[in-house]
Write a structure and sequence with these properties.
Strand content: 15-25%
Number of strands: 5
Helix content: 25-40%
Radius of gyration: 14 Å
Shape: globular
Number of helices: 4
Distance between the termini: 29 Å
């Protein structure tokens, strides 16, 4: 569903900030069609990435400072168990992540 009318500044500010990651080691923000899916779901990309942009390496400082209200982890090429193990090892051990 396409949005027929652009969001006003107030509407934009009210949309939740969502962080999408497709790898935690190395740390990669999700790209291609995933930012578009976040926008269609009513969220703002916490890193400011645009729909159609490439996945990109990001720093922990970017992640920890992005002000995300929710995190979606889509570990590319991993099983659900592998993604959970990667999250436990590389994400959940970082105290700043718990403040997002």
């Amino acid at each position: 569903v396409e949005r027929a009318v652009p969001a006003s500044a107030g509407e934009e500010a009210a949309r939740p900030r969502l962080l999408g990651l497709e790898s935690l080691f190395p740390l990669v923000a999700s790209g291609q069609w995933l930012p578009d899916q976040r926008a269609r779901a009513g969220a703002r990309d916490a890193l400011g990435d645009e729909p159609g942009g490439a996945a990109r390496l990001v720093s922990w400082a970017e992640v920890e400072g992005c002000g995300a209200e929710a995190v979606v982890l889509c570990c590319c090429g991993r099983t659900a168990a592998g993604a959970a193990a990667e999250a436990e090892q590389h994400l959940l051990s970082r105290p700043a992540v718990w403040r997002l």
